[in-house]
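Operator note (shift B, R.M.): manual run for Phosphate transporter requested after the automated queue skipped it. Running by hand, logging everything below so the morning shift can see what happened. Input copied straight from the record, untouched. If output looks odd, do not overwrite the archive copy; leave it for review.
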Amino acid sequence: MRRIHEPTSTDDPVGSARHTPAPVGMLGPDRNWHLGAGLMTLATAGAFTIWAFAYAGTHVNALLLVLALAFGLFMAFNIGGNDVANSFGTSVGAGTLTMKQALVVAAVFEVSGAVLAGGSVTETVRSGIVDLDQMQVDAPAFTYIMMSALLGAAVWLLLATRMGWPVSTTHAIIGGIVGAAVTTGLVTGTGGLAMVQWGEIGQIAISWVLSPVLGGVAAFLLFGAIKRRILAPAARAIALGSRGFDDGDDEDDADDPEQARHVPGYERLTELQQTAFAESAELDRSPGSPGAELVERAEQLTKKQRKAARNVERKAAYHALEKRVPPLAAGAAVVIASMLMFKGLKNVGLDITPWGGAVLLTMLAVAVWIGTRVFARALRTQTISQATFIMFSWLQVFTACAFAFSHGANDIANAVGPFAAVLDVLRTGTVSQEAAVPMAVLVAFGIALVSGLWFVGRKVIQTVGSGLTTMHPSSGFAAELAAAATVLLASVLGLPVSSTHILIGAVLGVGIVNRAANWKLMRPIFLAWIITLPAAAGIGAVAVLVMRAIF
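Run finished. Output pasted below as returned.
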Protein backbone atom coordinates (compact mmCIF):
# COMPACT_ATOMS: atom_id res chain seq x y z
CA MET A 1 0.00 0.00 0.00
CA ARG A 2 1.04 3.59 -0.45
CA ARG A 3 2.21 5.32 2.69
CA ILE A 4 0.08 8.20 3.89
CA HIS A 5 2.81 10.82 3.58
CA GLU A 6 3.85 9.81 0.08
CA PRO A 7 4.41 13.09 -1.79
CA THR A 8 2.26 13.97 -4.75
CA SER A 9 2.68 16.37 -7.61
CA THR A 10 0.48 18.93 -5.86
CA ASP A 11 2.58 18.97 -2.71
CA ASP A 12 5.78 20.25 -4.28
CA PRO A 13 5.74 20.65 -8.04
CA VAL A 14 9.39 21.58 -8.18
CA GLY A 15 10.50 18.82 -5.86
CA SER A 16 8.25 16.32 -7.60
CA ALA A 17 9.79 17.12 -10.95
CA ARG A 18 13.21 16.89 -9.41
CA HIS A 19 12.60 13.42 -7.97
CA THR A 20 10.60 11.99 -10.88
CA PRO A 21 12.80 9.51 -12.76
CA ALA A 22 13.48 10.43 -16.34
CA PRO A 23 11.76 8.27 -18.96
CA VAL A 24 13.78 5.28 -20.04
CA GLY A 25 13.54 5.05 -23.81
CA MET A 26 10.23 4.76 -25.60
CA LEU A 27 8.70 2.57 -22.87
CA GLY A 28 9.12 5.16 -20.09
CA PRO A 29 10.01 4.56 -16.43
CA ASP A 30 8.04 1.27 -16.32
CA ARG A 31 10.17 -0.24 -19.06
CA ASN A 32 11.01 -3.40 -17.13
CA TRP A 33 7.39 -3.94 -16.13
CA HIS A 34 6.22 -3.49 -19.72
CA LEU A 35 8.84 -5.91 -20.97
CA GLY A 36 8.08 -8.43 -18.25
CA ALA A 37 4.34 -8.35 -18.87
CA GLY A 38 4.90 -8.50 -22.63
CA LEU A 39 7.26 -11.46 -22.43
CA MET A 40 4.90 -13.26 -20.05
CA THR A 41 2.02 -12.73 -22.50
CA LEU A 42 4.02 -13.91 -25.52
CA ALA A 43 5.36 -16.95 -23.68
CA THR A 44 1.85 -17.87 -22.55
CA ALA A 45 0.45 -17.47 -26.07
CA GLY A 46 3.25 -19.60 -27.54
CA ALA A 47 2.97 -22.39 -24.99
CA PHE A 48 -0.83 -22.33 -25.22
CA THR A 49 -0.71 -22.64 -29.00
CA ILE A 50 1.57 -25.67 -28.81
CA TRP A 51 -0.70 -27.27 -26.22
CA ALA A 52 -3.85 -26.53 -28.27
CA PHE A 53 -2.51 -28.26 -31.39
CA ALA A 54 -1.54 -31.30 -29.36
CA TYR A 55 -4.95 -31.34 -27.65
CA ALA A 56 -7.04 -30.86 -30.82
CA GLY A 57 -5.23 -33.50 -32.85
CA THR A 58 -3.58 -33.64 -36.26
CA HIS A 59 -6.82 -33.49 -38.24
CA VAL A 60 -7.70 -29.96 -37.08
CA ASN A 61 -7.84 -27.01 -39.49
CA ALA A 62 -4.64 -25.18 -38.47
CA LEU A 63 -5.75 -21.71 -39.60
CA LEU A 64 -9.10 -22.01 -37.87
CA LEU A 65 -7.48 -23.13 -34.61
CA VAL A 66 -4.94 -20.29 -34.70
CA LEU A 67 -7.75 -17.77 -35.23
CA ALA A 68 -9.75 -19.32 -32.39
CA LEU A 69 -6.75 -19.06 -30.09
CA ALA A 70 -6.17 -15.44 -31.10
CA PHE A 71 -9.83 -14.44 -30.67
CA GLY A 72 -10.13 -16.19 -27.29
CA LEU A 73 -6.97 -14.69 -25.81
CA PHE A 74 -7.90 -11.31 -27.29
CA MET A 75 -11.27 -11.48 -25.55
CA ALA A 76 -9.66 -12.41 -22.21
CA PHE A 77 -7.13 -9.59 -22.68
CA ASN A 78 -9.91 -7.05 -23.10
CA ILE A 79 -11.91 -8.42 -20.18
CA GLY A 80 -8.81 -7.66 -18.13
CA GLY A 81 -8.51 -4.18 -19.61
CA ASN A 82 -12.14 -3.29 -18.88
CA ASP A 83 -13.76 -5.54 -16.30
CA VAL A 84 -10.71 -6.25 -14.11
CA ALA A 85 -9.66 -2.59 -14.37
CA ASN A 86 -13.14 -1.62 -13.25
CA SER A 87 -12.82 -3.88 -10.21
CA PHE A 88 -9.44 -2.39 -9.21
CA GLY A 89 -10.34 1.21 -10.04
CA THR A 90 -11.50 2.07 -6.53
CA SER A 91 -8.39 0.59 -4.90
CA VAL A 92 -5.95 2.37 -7.21
CA GLY A 93 -7.94 5.62 -7.15
CA ALA A 94 -8.01 5.62 -3.35
CA GLY A 95 -4.23 5.19 -3.15
CA THR A 96 -4.61 1.85 -1.39
CA LEU A 97 -2.81 0.06 -4.20
CA THR A 98 -0.45 1.34 -6.84
CA MET A 99 -0.89 0.17 -10.41
CA LYS A 100 1.98 -2.27 -9.98
CA GLN A 101 0.55 -3.62 -6.74
CA ALA A 102 -2.82 -4.03 -8.45
CA LEU A 103 -1.07 -6.02 -11.18
CA VAL A 104 0.49 -8.35 -8.60
CA VAL A 105 -2.80 -8.81 -6.72
CA ALA A 106 -4.58 -9.49 -10.00
CA ALA A 107 -1.90 -11.96 -11.06
CA VAL A 108 -2.31 -13.94 -7.85
CA PHE A 109 -6.06 -13.80 -7.25
CA GLU A 110 -7.50 -13.49 -10.77
CA VAL A 111 -5.48 -16.46 -12.01
CA SER A 112 -6.09 -18.52 -8.87
CA GLY A 113 -9.83 -17.77 -9.09
CA ALA A 114 -9.86 -18.86 -12.72
CA VAL A 115 -7.87 -22.03 -12.06
CA LEU A 116 -9.48 -23.12 -8.78
CA ALA A 117 -13.08 -22.16 -9.48
CA GLY A 118 -13.30 -21.34 -13.17
CA GLY A 119 -15.33 -24.44 -13.86
CA SER A 120 -14.55 -27.83 -15.37
CA VAL A 121 -17.39 -27.69 -17.92
CA THR A 122 -19.26 -24.87 -19.62
CA GLU A 123 -22.48 -24.68 -21.57
CA THR A 124 -21.80 -24.24 -25.26
CA VAL A 125 -24.79 -21.93 -25.82
CA ARG A 126 -24.51 -19.02 -23.41
CA SER A 127 -27.42 -17.73 -21.34
CA GLY A 128 -30.21 -19.10 -23.53
CA ILE A 129 -30.27 -15.81 -25.45
CA VAL A 130 -30.33 -17.48 -28.90
CA ASP A 131 -32.06 -20.75 -29.76
CA LEU A 132 -29.44 -22.40 -31.96
CA ASP A 133 -31.36 -25.71 -31.95
CA GLN A 134 -34.00 -24.01 -34.09
CA MET A 135 -31.35 -23.49 -36.80
CA GLN A 136 -30.13 -27.08 -36.68
CA VAL A 137 -26.66 -25.55 -36.93
CA ASP A 138 -23.82 -27.82 -38.04
CA ALA A 139 -20.33 -27.93 -36.52
CA PRO A 140 -18.63 -25.47 -38.93
CA ALA A 141 -21.43 -22.90 -38.64
CA PHE A 142 -21.40 -23.20 -34.85
CA THR A 143 -17.65 -22.63 -34.83
CA TYR A 144 -17.95 -19.49 -36.95
CA ILE A 145 -20.72 -18.13 -34.70
CA MET A 146 -18.74 -18.56 -31.48
CA MET A 147 -15.49 -17.24 -32.95
CA SER A 148 -17.27 -14.21 -34.40
CA ALA A 149 -18.96 -13.59 -31.05
CA LEU A 150 -15.56 -13.58 -29.33
CA LEU A 151 -14.15 -11.15 -31.88
CA GLY A 152 -17.20 -8.88 -31.83
CA ALA A 153 -17.24 -8.65 -28.04
CA ALA A 154 -13.46 -8.18 -27.83
CA VAL A 155 -13.32 -5.39 -30.41
CA TRP A 156 -16.12 -3.47 -28.70
CA LEU A 157 -14.49 -3.94 -25.28
CA LEU A 158 -11.22 -2.58 -26.64
CA LEU A 159 -12.95 0.49 -28.07
CA ALA A 160 -14.81 1.12 -24.81
CA THR A 161 -11.64 0.60 -22.79
CA ARG A 162 -9.69 3.10 -24.90
CA MET A 163 -12.43 5.64 -24.15
CA GLY A 164 -12.31 4.83 -20.44
CA TRP A 165 -15.86 3.44 -20.33
CA PRO A 166 -16.48 0.50 -17.95
CA VAL A 167 -19.03 -1.77 -19.67
CA SER A 168 -20.44 -5.23 -19.10
CA THR A 169 -18.38 -8.00 -20.69
CA THR A 170 -21.33 -10.36 -20.26
CA HIS A 171 -23.57 -8.09 -22.31
CA ALA A 172 -20.80 -7.79 -24.92
CA ILE A 173 -20.43 -11.55 -25.46
CA ILE A 174 -24.21 -11.98 -25.52
CA GLY A 175 -24.41 -9.28 -28.17
CA GLY A 176 -21.70 -10.99 -30.20
CA ILE A 177 -23.55 -14.31 -30.11
CA VAL A 178 -26.87 -12.69 -31.04
CA GLY A 179 -25.35 -10.82 -34.00
CA ALA A 180 -23.42 -13.80 -35.35
CA ALA A 181 -26.26 -16.31 -34.85
CA VAL A 182 -29.02 -14.16 -36.33
CA THR A 183 -26.84 -13.26 -39.34
CA THR A 184 -26.05 -16.93 -39.92
CA GLY A 185 -29.73 -17.81 -39.71
CA LEU A 186 -30.68 -15.11 -42.22
CA VAL A 187 -27.90 -16.06 -44.64
CA THR A 188 -28.68 -19.78 -44.56
CA GLY A 189 -32.45 -19.36 -44.39
CA THR A 190 -32.66 -21.41 -41.20
CA GLY A 191 -33.66 -18.66 -38.82
CA GLY A 192 -33.76 -14.97 -38.01
CA LEU A 193 -34.83 -12.56 -35.32
CA ALA A 194 -37.36 -15.08 -34.05
CA MET A 195 -34.45 -17.12 -32.63
CA VAL A 196 -33.67 -14.37 -30.11
CA GLN A 197 -35.15 -14.76 -26.64
CA TRP A 198 -36.40 -11.19 -26.38
CA GLY A 199 -37.45 -11.64 -22.77
CA GLU A 200 -33.78 -12.17 -21.86
CA ILE A 201 -32.83 -9.05 -23.83
CA GLY A 202 -35.49 -7.17 -21.88
CA GLN A 203 -33.87 -8.26 -18.62
CA ILE A 204 -30.57 -6.89 -19.85
CA ALA A 205 -32.28 -3.55 -20.53
CA ILE A 206 -33.74 -3.59 -17.01
CA SER A 207 -30.24 -4.12 -15.60
CA TRP A 208 -29.08 -0.82 -17.13
CA VAL A 209 -31.20 0.99 -14.56
CA LEU A 210 -31.68 -1.56 -11.77
CA SER A 211 -27.99 -2.39 -11.26
CA PRO A 212 -26.60 1.13 -10.73
CA VAL A 213 -29.61 2.17 -8.64
CA LEU A 214 -29.21 -0.80 -6.27
CA GLY A 215 -25.44 -0.30 -6.02
CA GLY A 216 -25.83 3.45 -5.54
CA VAL A 217 -28.41 3.13 -2.76
CA ALA A 218 -26.35 0.52 -0.92
CA ALA A 219 -23.15 2.60 -1.12
CA PHE A 220 -24.98 5.80 -0.17
CA LEU A 221 -26.33 4.22 3.01
CA LEU A 222 -23.11 2.40 3.92
CA PHE A 223 -20.66 5.24 3.31
CA GLY A 224 -23.02 7.76 4.89
CA ALA A 225 -23.00 5.67 8.08
CA ILE A 226 -19.20 5.25 7.98
CA LYS A 227 -18.77 8.97 7.52
CA ARG A 228 -21.07 9.96 10.37
CA ARG A 229 -20.04 7.31 12.88
CA ILE A 230 -16.33 6.75 12.18
CA LEU A 231 -14.78 9.50 10.07
CA ALA A 232 -16.44 12.59 11.55
CA PRO A 233 -14.65 12.45 14.94
CA ALA A 234 -11.31 11.97 13.18
CA ALA A 235 -11.91 14.95 10.89
CA ARG A 236 -12.90 17.14 13.82
CA ALA A 237 -9.87 16.04 15.84
CA ILE A 238 -7.54 17.03 13.01
CA ALA A 239 -9.21 20.41 12.58
CA LEU A 240 -8.95 21.09 16.31
CA GLY A 241 -5.19 20.43 16.43
CA SER A 242 -3.03 22.97 18.24
CA ARG A 243 -2.04 24.42 14.85
CA GLY A 244 -5.53 24.08 13.47
CA PHE A 245 -4.97 21.07 11.21
CA ASP A 246 -2.25 18.79 12.58
CA ASP A 247 -3.31 15.88 14.83
CA GLY A 248 0.21 14.88 15.82
CA ASP A 249 1.45 17.86 17.79
CA ASP A 250 0.20 17.39 21.33
CA GLU A 251 1.91 19.60 23.84
CA ASP A 252 0.03 18.36 26.83
CA ASP A 253 -2.66 15.71 26.77
CA ALA A 254 -3.41 15.92 30.47
CA ASP A 255 -7.05 15.54 31.38
CA ASP A 256 -9.02 18.73 31.48
CA PRO A 257 -12.40 19.30 33.17
CA GLU A 258 -13.72 20.78 29.95
CA GLN A 259 -13.22 17.45 28.18
CA ALA A 260 -16.54 16.26 29.54
CA ARG A 261 -18.37 17.60 26.52
CA HIS A 262 -17.88 18.76 22.96
CA VAL A 263 -17.38 22.44 22.35
CA PRO A 264 -20.72 23.89 21.15
CA GLY A 265 -20.88 24.08 17.39
CA TYR A 266 -18.69 21.09 16.62
CA GLU A 267 -21.34 18.52 17.40
CA ARG A 268 -23.63 20.31 14.92
CA LEU A 269 -21.27 20.36 11.96
CA THR A 270 -22.87 19.39 8.69
CA GLU A 271 -21.96 16.17 6.89
CA LEU A 272 -20.10 18.20 4.30
CA GLN A 273 -17.97 19.80 7.01
CA GLN A 274 -17.31 16.38 8.52
CA THR A 275 -16.04 14.96 5.24
CA ALA A 276 -13.35 12.30 5.23
CA PHE A 277 -10.27 14.49 5.18
CA ALA A 278 -8.94 12.37 8.03
CA GLU A 279 -7.53 10.05 5.37
CA SER A 280 -5.20 12.67 3.91
CA ALA A 281 -1.83 13.78 5.18
CA GLU A 282 -3.40 17.16 5.97
CA LEU A 283 -6.72 18.92 5.53
CA ASP A 284 -7.63 20.60 2.28
CA ARG A 285 -7.36 24.24 3.32
CA SER A 286 -8.18 25.88 0.00
CA PRO A 287 -10.64 28.82 0.32
CA GLY A 288 -14.22 27.64 0.61
CA SER A 289 -13.33 24.01 1.26
CA PRO A 290 -14.79 22.06 4.22
CA GLY A 291 -11.30 21.88 5.72
CA ALA A 292 -11.01 25.67 5.61
CA GLU A 293 -14.38 25.99 7.36
CA LEU A 294 -13.29 23.61 10.12
CA VAL A 295 -10.00 25.43 10.64
CA GLU A 296 -11.80 28.78 10.71
CA ARG A 297 -14.13 27.53 13.42
CA ALA A 298 -11.18 26.18 15.40
CA GLU A 299 -9.42 29.53 15.25
CA GLN A 300 -12.38 31.17 16.98
CA LEU A 301 -11.83 29.06 20.09
CA THR A 302 -9.37 29.76 22.83
CA LYS A 303 -6.36 27.51 23.09
CA LYS A 304 -7.82 25.85 26.16
CA GLN A 305 -11.20 25.27 24.51
CA ARG A 306 -9.63 23.89 21.39
CA LYS A 307 -7.36 21.57 23.31
CA ALA A 308 -10.23 20.28 25.45
CA ALA A 309 -12.45 19.73 22.45
CA ARG A 310 -9.66 18.05 20.53
CA ASN A 311 -8.98 15.57 23.31
CA VAL A 312 -12.66 14.65 23.28
CA GLU A 313 -12.65 14.19 19.53
CA ARG A 314 -9.39 12.20 19.54
CA LYS A 315 -10.83 9.81 22.09
CA ALA A 316 -14.01 9.56 20.06
CA ALA A 317 -12.02 8.87 16.89
CA TYR A 318 -9.95 6.06 18.44
CA HIS A 319 -13.09 4.70 20.10
CA ALA A 320 -14.80 4.59 16.69
CA LEU A 321 -11.89 2.65 15.20
CA GLU A 322 -11.92 0.14 18.06
CA LYS A 323 -15.67 -0.28 18.55
CA ARG A 324 -17.34 0.48 15.23
CA VAL A 325 -14.88 -0.78 12.62
CA PRO A 326 -14.61 -4.41 13.92
CA PRO A 327 -18.33 -5.22 13.41
CA LEU A 328 -18.11 -3.51 10.00
CA ALA A 329 -15.10 -5.65 9.09
CA ALA A 330 -16.86 -8.80 10.36
CA GLY A 331 -19.90 -8.01 8.23
CA ALA A 332 -17.68 -7.40 5.22
CA ALA A 333 -15.97 -10.75 5.77
CA VAL A 334 -19.33 -12.53 5.87
CA VAL A 335 -20.52 -10.82 2.67
CA ILE A 336 -17.30 -11.53 0.78
CA ALA A 337 -17.09 -15.13 2.03
CA SER A 338 -20.72 -15.72 1.10
CA MET A 339 -20.11 -14.34 -2.38
CA LEU A 340 -17.11 -16.63 -2.81
CA MET A 341 -18.93 -19.67 -1.42
CA PHE A 342 -22.08 -19.26 -3.50
CA LYS A 343 -20.57 -17.75 -6.66
CA GLY A 344 -16.78 -18.04 -6.86
CA LEU A 345 -16.50 -21.56 -5.48
CA LYS A 346 -19.65 -23.09 -6.92
CA ASN A 347 -17.67 -25.09 -9.48
CA VAL A 348 -15.07 -26.49 -7.10
CA GLY A 349 -17.39 -29.26 -5.94
CA LEU A 350 -17.53 -28.20 -2.29
CA ASP A 351 -20.71 -29.62 -0.79
CA ILE A 352 -21.44 -27.25 2.08
CA THR A 353 -24.82 -27.56 3.77
CA PRO A 354 -26.67 -24.40 4.85
CA TRP A 355 -25.98 -25.27 8.49
CA GLY A 356 -22.29 -25.87 7.83
CA GLY A 357 -22.05 -22.65 5.86
CA ALA A 358 -23.67 -20.71 8.71
CA VAL A 359 -21.19 -22.16 11.21
CA LEU A 360 -18.22 -21.32 8.99
CA LEU A 361 -19.44 -17.76 8.42
CA THR A 362 -20.05 -17.25 12.15
CA MET A 363 -16.55 -18.46 13.01
CA LEU A 364 -15.08 -16.20 10.34
CA ALA A 365 -17.04 -13.18 11.60
CA VAL A 366 -15.86 -13.71 15.19
CA ALA A 367 -12.23 -14.15 14.12
CA VAL A 368 -12.29 -11.02 11.94
CA TRP A 369 -14.02 -9.01 14.68
CA ILE A 370 -11.37 -9.93 17.27
CA GLY A 371 -8.46 -9.47 14.85
CA THR A 372 -9.67 -6.06 13.70
CA ARG A 373 -10.14 -4.85 17.26
CA VAL A 374 -6.61 -5.93 18.21
CA PHE A 375 -5.29 -4.18 15.09
CA ALA A 376 -7.24 -1.00 15.92
CA ARG A 377 -5.77 -0.91 19.43
CA ALA A 378 -2.28 -1.24 17.98
CA LEU A 379 -2.97 1.82 15.83
CA ARG A 380 -3.26 4.07 18.90
CA THR A 381 0.45 4.75 18.49
CA GLN A 382 -0.32 6.40 15.13
CA THR A 383 -1.84 9.81 14.53
CA ILE A 384 -5.56 9.92 13.83
CA SER A 385 -5.10 10.49 10.11
CA GLN A 386 -2.57 7.66 9.81
CA ALA A 387 -4.65 5.24 11.90
CA THR A 388 -7.79 5.90 9.84
CA PHE A 389 -5.93 5.61 6.54
CA ILE A 390 -4.16 2.38 7.54
CA MET A 391 -7.29 0.73 8.90
CA PHE A 392 -9.44 1.32 5.82
CA SER A 393 -6.54 0.63 3.46
CA TRP A 394 -6.18 -2.89 4.82
CA LEU A 395 -9.93 -3.42 4.70
CA GLN A 396 -9.93 -2.34 1.07
CA VAL A 397 -7.00 -4.62 0.23
CA PHE A 398 -9.09 -7.50 1.59
CA THR A 399 -12.12 -6.61 -0.54
CA ALA A 400 -9.94 -6.06 -3.62
CA CYS A 401 -8.36 -9.53 -3.29
CA ALA A 402 -11.75 -11.16 -2.81
CA PHE A 403 -13.20 -9.31 -5.80
CA ALA A 404 -10.25 -10.41 -7.94
CA PHE A 405 -10.72 -14.07 -6.97
CA SER A 406 -14.46 -13.95 -7.58
CA HIS A 407 -13.96 -12.18 -10.90
CA GLY A 408 -11.45 -14.76 -12.07
CA ALA A 409 -13.83 -17.52 -11.06
CA ASN A 410 -16.92 -16.09 -12.76
CA ASP A 411 -16.42 -13.52 -15.50
CA ILE A 412 -13.58 -15.37 -17.20
CA ALA A 413 -16.38 -17.61 -18.50
CA ASN A 414 -17.28 -14.83 -20.95
CA ALA A 415 -14.12 -15.75 -22.84
CA VAL A 416 -13.68 -19.37 -21.78
CA GLY A 417 -17.26 -20.46 -22.63
CA PRO A 418 -17.31 -19.74 -26.37
CA PHE A 419 -13.65 -20.70 -26.80
CA ALA A 420 -14.07 -24.04 -25.03
CA ALA A 421 -17.06 -24.74 -27.26
CA VAL A 422 -15.02 -23.99 -30.39
CA LEU A 423 -12.09 -26.08 -29.18
CA ASP A 424 -14.38 -29.00 -28.44
CA VAL A 425 -15.97 -28.81 -31.91
CA LEU A 426 -12.58 -28.62 -33.61
CA ARG A 427 -11.37 -31.63 -31.64
CA THR A 428 -14.46 -33.85 -31.96
CA GLY A 429 -16.17 -32.53 -35.09
CA THR A 430 -19.55 -32.41 -33.34
CA VAL A 431 -21.53 -29.85 -31.31
CA SER A 432 -22.08 -30.89 -27.68
CA GLN A 433 -24.39 -29.35 -25.11
CA GLU A 434 -21.45 -29.10 -22.71
CA ALA A 435 -17.74 -28.81 -23.36
CA ALA A 436 -14.84 -29.61 -21.05
CA VAL A 437 -12.59 -26.72 -20.01
CA PRO A 438 -8.98 -27.94 -19.75
CA MET A 439 -6.80 -26.43 -17.04
CA ALA A 440 -4.45 -24.97 -19.66
CA VAL A 441 -7.29 -22.80 -21.00
CA LEU A 442 -8.04 -21.37 -17.55
CA VAL A 443 -4.38 -20.61 -16.84
CA ALA A 444 -3.73 -19.00 -20.24
CA PHE A 445 -6.89 -16.90 -20.13
CA GLY A 446 -6.20 -15.87 -16.53
CA ILE A 447 -2.75 -14.58 -17.54
CA ALA A 448 -4.35 -12.75 -20.48
CA LEU A 449 -6.69 -11.01 -18.01
CA VAL A 450 -3.74 -9.69 -16.03
CA SER A 451 -1.93 -8.60 -19.18
CA GLY A 452 -4.97 -6.64 -20.33
CA LEU A 453 -5.20 -4.88 -16.97
CA TRP A 454 -1.59 -3.69 -17.25
CA PHE A 455 -1.50 -2.66 -20.89
CA VAL A 456 -4.91 -1.11 -21.56
CA GLY A 457 -6.73 -0.83 -18.23
CA ARG A 458 -5.46 2.53 -17.01
CA LYS A 459 -8.17 4.71 -18.54
CA VAL A 460 -10.95 2.62 -16.99
CA ILE A 461 -9.12 2.69 -13.66
CA GLN A 462 -8.90 6.48 -13.91
CA THR A 463 -12.63 6.72 -14.67
CA VAL A 464 -13.68 4.55 -11.74
CA GLY A 465 -10.98 5.68 -9.30
CA SER A 466 -11.08 9.44 -9.78
CA GLY A 467 -13.22 10.43 -12.76
CA LEU A 468 -16.66 9.81 -11.27
CA THR A 469 -15.68 11.03 -7.80
CA THR A 470 -12.60 11.31 -5.59
CA MET A 471 -11.81 8.08 -3.79
CA HIS A 472 -10.22 7.47 -0.38
CA PRO A 473 -9.70 4.09 1.31
CA SER A 474 -12.91 4.36 3.35
CA SER A 475 -15.06 5.40 0.39
CA GLY A 476 -13.41 2.80 -1.86
CA PHE A 477 -14.01 0.12 0.76
CA ALA A 478 -17.64 1.21 1.11
CA ALA A 479 -18.17 1.11 -2.67
CA GLU A 480 -16.64 -2.36 -3.01
CA LEU A 481 -18.49 -3.79 -0.03
CA ALA A 482 -21.81 -2.27 -1.15
CA ALA A 483 -21.29 -3.71 -4.63
CA ALA A 484 -20.46 -7.17 -3.26
CA ALA A 485 -23.51 -7.18 -0.98
CA THR A 486 -25.75 -6.06 -3.84
CA VAL A 487 -24.40 -8.72 -6.23
CA LEU A 488 -24.94 -11.39 -3.57
CA LEU A 489 -28.48 -10.22 -2.78
CA ALA A 490 -29.40 -9.99 -6.46
CA SER A 491 -28.08 -13.51 -7.05
CA VAL A 492 -30.19 -14.87 -4.20
CA LEU A 493 -33.31 -13.03 -5.43
CA GLY A 494 -32.65 -13.81 -9.09
CA LEU A 495 -32.63 -10.16 -10.16
CA PRO A 496 -31.17 -9.29 -13.59
CA VAL A 497 -28.12 -7.23 -12.66
CA SER A 498 -24.60 -6.54 -13.89
CA SER A 499 -21.70 -6.47 -11.42
CA THR A 500 -19.97 -3.80 -13.51
CA HIS A 501 -23.02 -1.54 -13.46
CA ILE A 502 -23.51 -2.16 -9.73
CA LEU A 503 -19.96 -1.06 -8.91
CA ILE A 504 -20.32 2.09 -11.01
CA GLY A 505 -23.56 2.87 -9.19
CA ALA A 506 -21.79 2.32 -5.86
CA VAL A 507 -19.04 4.77 -6.83
CA LEU A 508 -21.70 7.33 -7.71
CA GLY A 509 -23.42 6.65 -4.37
CA VAL A 510 -20.19 7.60 -2.61
CA GLY A 511 -19.99 10.72 -4.76
CA ILE A 512 -23.54 11.70 -3.78
CA VAL A 513 -22.64 11.44 -0.08
CA ASN A 514 -19.66 13.74 -0.68
CA ARG A 515 -21.72 15.92 -3.07
CA ALA A 516 -19.04 15.38 -5.69
CA ALA A 517 -20.52 12.96 -8.26
CA ASN A 518 -19.45 13.66 -11.84
CA TRP A 519 -22.76 13.24 -13.67
CA LYS A 520 -21.32 14.69 -16.86
CA LEU A 521 -18.93 11.73 -17.19
CA MET A 522 -21.73 9.31 -16.38
CA ARG A 523 -23.70 10.26 -19.50
CA PRO A 524 -21.31 8.69 -22.06
CA ILE A 525 -20.84 5.68 -19.78
CA PHE A 526 -24.59 5.05 -19.64
CA LEU A 527 -24.80 5.45 -23.41
CA ALA A 528 -21.98 2.89 -23.75
CA TRP A 529 -24.00 0.45 -21.62
CA ILE A 530 -26.96 0.79 -23.96
CA ILE A 531 -24.98 0.33 -27.17
CA THR A 532 -22.77 -2.51 -25.88
CA LEU A 533 -25.10 -5.26 -27.02
CA PRO A 534 -25.94 -3.83 -30.48
CA ALA A 535 -22.35 -2.75 -31.10
CA ALA A 536 -20.96 -6.21 -30.30
CA ALA A 537 -23.79 -7.75 -32.32
CA GLY A 538 -22.94 -5.62 -35.36
CA ILE A 539 -19.25 -6.48 -35.23
CA GLY A 540 -20.08 -10.16 -34.68
CA ALA A 541 -22.42 -10.10 -37.69
CA VAL A 542 -19.73 -8.68 -39.96
CA ALA A 543 -17.16 -11.13 -38.59
CA VAL A 544 -19.33 -14.18 -39.25
CA LEU A 545 -19.95 -13.09 -42.85
CA VAL A 546 -16.20 -12.71 -43.40
CA MET A 547 -15.47 -16.09 -41.83
CA ARG A 548 -18.09 -17.85 -43.93
CA ALA A 549 -16.62 -16.21 -47.03
CA ILE A 550 -13.07 -17.31 -46.15
CA PHE A 551 -13.80 -20.85 -44.99
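Quick read of the result: The longest helix spans residues 198-239. The two ends are 51 Å apart (CA to CA).
Leaving this for review. - R.M.
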